[in-house]
Amino acid sequence: MANSQSSGEELCATYIDKFCNDRNLSGAIRLVRTLHDKNISLRPSAHNRLLKAAIEENDIGLLCQCFKDLLVSCKSLNSSTYLIFAQAFIKENDVPCLLRFVREMSELIFPSSTTVMNRIIFAFAECGQIDKALLIFDQMKSLKSKPDVITYNTILGILGKCGRIDEMLNEFLAMKEDGLIPDIVSYNTLITGLRKVGRLESCLVFFREMCEREIEPDLRTYSALIDSFGKSGNIEESLRLFNEMKHKGICPSIHVYKLLISNLKKMGKFELAIAFSNEMKESISNNHGSNYNRQKNR
């Protein structure tokens, strides 16, 4: 049965490839729609081949139509397919066409359109088109498919990586004003963005806020704060956070140990650095031992 399905998918992919080679994209689109009606799925490689053929035609409207048909006809598209679509807009600056596509998709595949928009925004950011990703996000606010927590987390990450910290903080406030509840990803993204520009007091403010909201900090949260305060010379705060992390039952990673040891050495606290180095080695040894016992008892 599996071999039969695989052969069918391969045959469909071959036909899509032939249509594309013949520059008969309308035929390829009709085939995609027919397969959808018959509940037959296409391979990701066939999706990508169709989009690449549309790009070769230098027709952004045709590309949007092909992508729209794929989104409607297929249950799920591979992340590489979203990336190919986004990359087509690197040289093409037809923003009105892009925003029209966003509006049409929002209506066409609602309520799953928010998930699709999130993936499109991420793909545009991945290929360096930050402004277009933000335009799509702004457009979403006026559509039926409103931004959700994942959308906002993606935007916070984009702005944080670009160093646009004030915009990141404004969007975080907008997120809460929209009635959405920030999660651990939201706060970790904020703290990571703030630490990059040295706004350590703000890092602590949001750290306390997440704790007040009963969102438990994780290893990523503590790693960012421990390293930030260590590098800034506030080794006491770094040590306090390290001990607090262990007290909460979060096992320090080797990465965290190395960051702490490095910062201690820079501050001339060599005895403490040696003590934590020994603790790290003991931790590695214990982990290896427990892994060995687990494998032995299988």
Automatic annotation (TrEMBL):
Descriptive protein name: Pentatricopeptide repeat-containing protein
Similarity comment: Belongs to the PPR family. P subfamily.
Keywords assigned: Repeat
Domain of life: Eukaryota
PPR repeat segments: 113-147, 148-182, 183-217, 218-252
